[in-house]
Amino acid sequence: MDFKFKHEKTGEIKTLTLTEKKMAELIESDVIFDEFCAQECKCSPVGETNVVECGCETYLDHFELQD
Asked: With the CA atoms of 12, 17, 20 and 22 taken in that order, what torsion angle do they form, in degrees rounded to the nearest 10?
């Protein structure tokens, strides 16, 4: 099943595709948006540090689930 998210300012649309089993798990725990962020935000540490600060989640906060 596909879930579409649209950025409120840019109009960019991203799609999260979930299996029926995964969707049932996420709906039960009410974390579909968290799964969207996890799949879209692929930040990695810079250099030899373990610090990850790419600002991806802040950007994704502006996406809203579409009907």
From this structure: -100
**Strand 13-17 vs strand 63-65: parallel, antiparallel, or unpaired?**
unpaired
DSSP annotation of 48: T
Placement of tokens 């935000």 in the chain? 41
* C-alpha dist (Å) from residue 53 to 14, 28, 60: 22, 30, 14
Q: 18, 4 in Cβ contact below 8 A?
A: no
Residue 5: how many other CB atoms lie within 10 Å: 20
pLDDT in tens, 29-65: 667 777 777 778 877 766 676 666 677 777 777 777 6
Query: How many residues belong to the chain?
Result: 67
Tokens matching residue 55: 């600002």
Paired with 40 in beta bridges are: none
